[in-house]
């Protein structure tokens, strides 16, 4: 089990929330389908916090230069970013969100 980061009710639909676990910054998103995702919070193009960006469907867009990252795979969907961000395993237990910063998903 990972670290508790918040309750599910604290997450706003289609809005990223920045959390830091053991020094690892992450953007946590509850999408419009109710699924919770956690990806690396730092854009691979410009060292910008992705949690300040825009959620649309299953993507998180960097507010600075417009690169969109898949919440599922971490892969950038357009330039200028071309390197993926890590995707972390999320567990929902009794209405709480748990994330392990050492458990990245392989997509």
Automatic annotation (TrEMBL):
GO molecular function: 2 iron, 2 sulfur cluster binding; metal ion binding; monooxygenase activity; oxidoreductase activity, acting on paired donors, with incorporation or reduction of molecular oxygen
Residues making up the signal peptide according to the UniProt record: none
Keywords, in A-Z order: 2Fe-2S, Iron, Iron-sulfur, Metal-binding
Domain called Rieske: residue spans: 3-99
Keyword Repeat in annotation: no
The keyword Metal-binding is assigned to this record: yes
Pfam families registered for this protein in UniProt: Rieske
Protein name, UniProt field: Non-heme iron oxygenase ferredoxin subunit
Species of provenance: Leifsonia poae
